[in-house]
Amino acid sequence: MDTEVEHADILLAYADAIYASDSGELERTREQVHSRMGSGATIEAAATAANFSMLDRVANAVGIQIESMAIEQTEDFRGELGINQYVSAANTLGNL
Fold first, then answer.
1. Domain extent at residue 90
2. Cβ(95)–Cβ(68) under 8 Å?
3. What is the dihedral angle through the alpha carbons of 17, 41, 54, 66, rounded to the nearest 10 degrees?
4. Measuring CA to CA, which residue among 48, 9, 10 is closest to residue 28?
5. Which of 4, 39, 72, 78 is least surrounded by CB atoms within 10 angstroms?
6. Which are the contacts of 5, defined by CB distance < 8 A and separation ≥ 6?
């Protein structure tokens, strides 16, 4: 992915590793973030991912539904990625 964000390649790899099931890959990418960006950036990247996950889980637990416009705009890739099969998708798809 081409972005203008400095170190985007390793940050994207780290984000992917956080949600994958390979703990070795997570450790490798965390070390790469640390070696290229420093300990402060490693903490910030981990905190950002954790905060996103937390906010998403809170919204799901409360039953907050996504707006219908967003459902329509994401229909193609939700199907491709299998997101509609997640248990929490009932909250999202309940807004159809």
1. 65-96
2. yes
3. -80
4. 10
5. 4
6. 11
Please name the residues in contact with 20: beta carbons below 8 A apart, sequence gap of 6 or more. Answer: 26
Number of domains in the chain: 2
Q: Are residues 14 and 51 in the same domain?
A: yes
Instruction: Please tell me whether residues 58 and 69 are part of one structural domain.
Output: no
Q: Find out whether 45 and 11 touch, Cβ atoms under 8 Å.
A: yes
pTM across the whole model? 0.65
pLDDT per residue over 18-48, tens digit each? 988 899 999 999 999 999 999 999 999 999 9
Phi and psi for 7 in degrees, rounded to 5? Answer: 65, 25
Count the Cβ atoms, other than its own, within 10 Å of residue 71: 16
The CA distances from residue 8 to 1, 26, 50, 75, 91, in Å, are 8, 16, 18, 26, 31
